[in-house]
Amino acid sequence: MTADTKQMLRMELLARRRDLPDDQRTPLDSALTALLLAFVQGALAERAMSDAPPAPPYTVATYVPLGMEPGTTSLPQQLKDLGVRVLLPIVGAPGPLDWAEYQDASSLAPARMDLLEPTGPALGADAIAVADVIFVPGLAGDSSGMRMGRGGGFYDQSLPLASDSAPRLLCLYPWELREHIPTEPHDVPVTHIVTPTAIRSVNKH
Fold first, then answer.
1. Which tens digit of pLDDT belongs to each residue from 27-60?
2. Measuring CA to CA, which residue among 194, 202, 190, 181 is closest to residue 10?
């Protein structure tokens, strides 16, 4: 029954996103994006103060919000303006996501499922392994770090390929953070949940 319960919850959450007026959505999206940028700025500042040898470019694996997903479509460019390397997903056949590097807004093109995807060379599913942090879309999350997506399983198959040290930040509206969501054995948890008001650590490595 878990699959049926999850599908019913997905329909409920998607309906609430559809009904959210733009004058409420816009400030929520802007506030969430500001928190994500601040997280990266903090990581860059910490790296700059480190005595460790020079490291490869700080890399963020993120996404361009689809339809009513939380966040702003300007996030990849704002991240790039911070001097970081930005990877965006490419959705293909069922399985883990492919990835390509974001260059600028002109390097995005419409793709399947109404996505905007990078047009640069595909780097393969293993490219997520170099990400220092991963921003993850979803429909709901809970206090233990479990995530519920749209049901395609792309992130559940991609996140195990990431570095164990990379924080995984699930981006949600406030009401999408639940005490408990139905889960299945293949579901992969995140380490943080981000809403427009806070970043919460929920499942530290």
1. 999 999 999 999 999 999 999 888 777 778 999 9
2. 181
205 vs 174 pLDDT, higher one: 174
Return the amino acid letter for 98: D
Kindly give, in sequence order, each residue whose CB lies less than 8 Å from that of residue 167, ignoring residues fewer than 6 positions away: 133, 134, 191, 192
Tell which residue, 202, 112, 93, has the closest CA to residue 157. Answer: 93
The closest alpha carbon to 139, from 49, 32, 15, belongs to 15
Contact criterion met (CB below 8 Å) for 181 and 143 = no
Q: Helix/strand/coil (H, E, C) string of 51-111?
A: CCCCCCCCEEECCCCCCCCCCCCCHHHHHHHCCCEEEEEECCCCCCCEEEECCCHHHEEEC
Measured distance CA(118)–CA(100) in Å, rounded: 6
Per-residue pLDDT tens digits for 116-175: 889 999 999 999 999 999 999 999 999 999 999 988 889 999 999 999 999 999 999 999
- Residue 81's pLDDT band (cuts 50, 70, 90): very high
Helix (H) or strand (E) holding 134: strand 133-136
Strands 147-148 and 140-142: antiparallel
